[in-house]
């Protein structure tokens, strides 16, 4: 399975479940540097052009407060929000 096909399957499943719950916007964490952001937006737009896509890593307001993952992790620690740091896991996948 290629990443492109995987993103299509992911977007399709997310849209189906999100619609069941009345959601109208898909937000993804793909950075502004890779193809994933384009794939998510393209697939969502093709499957349902009325469904919105929000890409936080391209939002200037968010980037002003959180220029990178380090600042987000600091925010989580400060507010005692439990999380898993994937970048520090033994096995990492892109």
Core attributes:
94 residues; mainly alpha; 4 helices; 2 strands; 49% helix; 6% strand; globular
Low-confidence stretches: none
Average pLDDT rating: 84
Tell me the Rg in angstroms.
15 Å
Helical residue percent band: 40-55%
Describe the structure.
By secondary structure, this protein is mainly alpha-helical. It contains 4 helices and 2 strands; from the N terminus they run H-E-H-E-H-H. It has helices at 3-20, 36-47, 60-65, 69-78; strands at residues 25-27, 52-54. It has a two-stranded parallel ribbon. Helix 1 (3-20) crosses helix 2. It starts with a helix and ends in a 16-residue tail after the last helix. The model has no long low-confidence stretch (mean pLDDT 84).
Draw up the topology in text:
Layout (H helix, E strand, L loop, with lengths): L2 H18 L4 E3 L8 H12 L4 E3 L5 H6 L3 H10 L16
Parallel strand pairs: 1-2
Helix pairs in contact: 1-2
Short recap of the structure:
By secondary structure, the chain is mainly alpha-helical.
